[in-house]
Amino acid sequence: MGPVGPGGATGPMRWSHVGLNCVDQKTTEEFYTRHFGFSRARVVDLGESRIVFLRQGEVYLELFAAGTDPARAAHEDGPQAPGRMRHLAFQTDSVDAFLAQLGDAAEVTLGPLDFDDFICGWRTVWVRDPDGVIVEVSQGFEDESSHDKDGV
Asked: Whole-model pTM?
């Protein structure tokens, strides 16, 4: 039996969104629309604040006004403590082209690194968004195929 949906209906679970706390929602929105291809999908007005939903394909980011700096700055590929998101991740055709387009709009926290020992052509860089969230950008990642598995 699959997951139970509204009204008791059974159906597959689908990804919905990631909620991000933002020091400045406008700056964060501009970062993800300019460099990651998101566009505004909806704004929910709460009177003194608002929630901004950004969409890219089936992926949503939900932006909340937080008004404070991160408690602890994330480094390298993100926080390693349980209960904290480590990083957001995106795929591109070229990490180098992404970095050229990004310019100085974000700090590189790690990389670019090549992971050819695992997957030929896999290359990754990690950057910090305006609110301190680590964002991974990779090229060349592929799912494991049956011929890659040891003894299977």
From this structure: 0.82
